[in-house]
Structures are given as structure tokens and as C-alpha cells.
Amino acid sequence: MGPTGSGKSTFINLLSGSDLRIGEGLEACTAEVQRSLPFELDGKRVVLVDTPGFDDTAKSDAEILGLVVDYIAELYKSKKNLAGVLYFHRISDFRVGGIAKRNIEVFHELCGEALPNALIVTNMWGEVTSERGERREHQLRTDNKFFAPTINAGAHMFRHQNTRDSAEAIVREIIHKVPQVLKIQREIVDEKLSLAETAAGGVLFRDLKAQEEKHKKEQEEMKQEMETANATVKEELKQEIQRQEAELVRVQEEMEKLRRNQARERKEQERLREKQPTQTPTRHGVEGMQMDQGMDVKGEVSVPYGADGHREHAKATKDIRIGSGARSGNLGGDTDRVNGQRGKAEA
Length: 347
Prior knowledge:
Blueprint: H1 8-16, E1 34-35, E2 39-41, E3 44-46, E4 49-50, H2 61-77, E5 85-90, H3 98-111, E6 118-123, H4 130-142, H5 148-152, E7 156-159, H6 164-175, H7 183-190, H8 199-226, H9 231-274, E8 278-282, E9 285-290, E10 320-323, E11 329-332, E12 337-338, E13 341-342
Parallel strand pairs: 5-6, 6-7
Antiparallel strand pairs: 1-4, 2-3, 8-9, 10-11, 12-13
Domain G: 1-60
Region (Disordered): 259-347
Protein name: G domain-containing protein
């Protein structure tokens, strides 16, 4: 996971030999969740997963979070745990604004009790002096406004020096850990919460609500100022009010997307409850179960791994998913042992 342009796709291409599109302009390139080509590391088969970054130019943060959550929830439904999550942060950023702070909090809440399997990856060290980079790194580690709460909960911070050796060392920190279930996976799959009801979704919604109130207040203050302003100032205020109105509309639309997502998920849960199997009573008690033919009672989504569309338990592999996206993060899973070897895990 991580913001747009934080180097997630570059990291994945460097390690896997994939050809994921890398952004060079102002627009984001990763629009959907993408899997890398598999590669071997320490005898394990690794797959990295690239997820779209927050503050995307084409999708809202609510849409991005929905994409990431849908993907990792389906993995969990298919009985695949995640090996870990990587969150990318540019050390070259001279300030960490409100949106970036919110995204860090979303990442924290998305992982929850699985934070010991999360790594914060600082990169783009070549764009700053060593002294400045170390000073920023120290503040990121120790300041409660940034990554200090996440690190105190078990996450670790690593530097990526834009080399293959550096990238391999980071991924090794993940593939040798016992896979954990993310907090948001339990919330969505086990507790049947909507995205807006999850801890991570709640962080996003509260931030949007605060933005809405801020824009409304600023608009009202500028309208009052216009009553006593001269013609030149009035024109400047008018343009600023128009800008504020456009931003307010964007925030409200994003909040509505979260609400619609919540309503859609509730409707789907009701549909699944209606299709729950019914018990047939007999004079000896409950004899069996009745269900619609071909119905998936659990509502689970099958994720194929082999060419035939079925999980290949015979292959001793360990996949690691790296999402961008808390993504973008690295996500990974299953540790079944097959013929004395470790099983597949997606990260």
C-alpha cells in the first residue's frame, strides 16, 4: 500500500521482472489490483500484488479502499491468509500533509492485530541528503502523528535503496513470518460489516466529514467578507468560493460512494441470509438440510491458482502479495505443508 507515485510498481518490477506500468507524469498508472510474475526467493515462490494508491487522479479514495478490500476479502474467503503488508512512503516528501496522515491511519486500522507482519518501506533516498533523510526518518518513527503508533503496535520500518538486494532483504522480512489475518478481513468476512462500518472505512468517512464541514465554514466566511470588500477583492473571493464549492462537491460525492457501498453490502447480506439452508424437521428431529441446487451457501468467492481453475495443493509454493495499495502493501498467505515443503501464501 501507499500513495500514488511512492514507488510500489517500480519495486515489484525490480524484484519480479514484471512489466507493470510505472507513472512518469502527474497521473496515476495503477488503476486496478495487479499480480506480478512469480519468482523464487529463499526457495519460496513469491507473487507481489500491486494495488492502486490513495490520492489517485482517476479514482476516489473510497473507490481505492473498496478495490483493495474486495481483493483481500476474497483471498480470506478462499482460506488464504496474507504473509504481510508493505506500506511505501517517500522519504523525499518535505512534509506529510493531512491526506497522507489519514492514509497512514487507514493502513494502521486495516492491518490491526496483523501489524507485526507489516513493514513501512521508505524509499527515494537518492533524492535527499543523508542528514535530511535520517532526520525525517527519525520523525516518522517517533512522532505520534505519523508512524509511531503503527511501529509501537509491532510494525517495522526499512529503507529501500532502489537495488535488488535491498528489495529482497525487505521481502525476506515478510516471507519468514507466520501469516496473519488482517483486521479488515475479519470485519468484512467474519463480522459481516460494510466497508463504512470497518475501522479503516470509518477513518476515511470521518476525514471526509471534517473536510465537508471545513469547506462549508470557509465558504460562509468568504461570503460574509464579500459584503464589505471592494470590486477587486470581490472577484478574487468569488473565484475562491467557486473553487471551494467544487471541492465540497467532490468530498460529498466521495461520502456518498461510501454510503452506497454500505447500502449495497447490506442488500447483498440480506440476499445471502434469505438463501441460507433450511432444516427439515422429522419425527426424530432434524434430519437434513434443504438448499437450492447449485447455491453457494457461504457466498464465498473461488480464486483459481492452477491452469485448470483449481487450487494446486500439490505445488509447494509461498506467494507474497504486495499491495499499494493500506494497497501499496504486500499481502500474503497460506502456509500449508505439502510433501514436507511450505504451501502457497499470497502476499
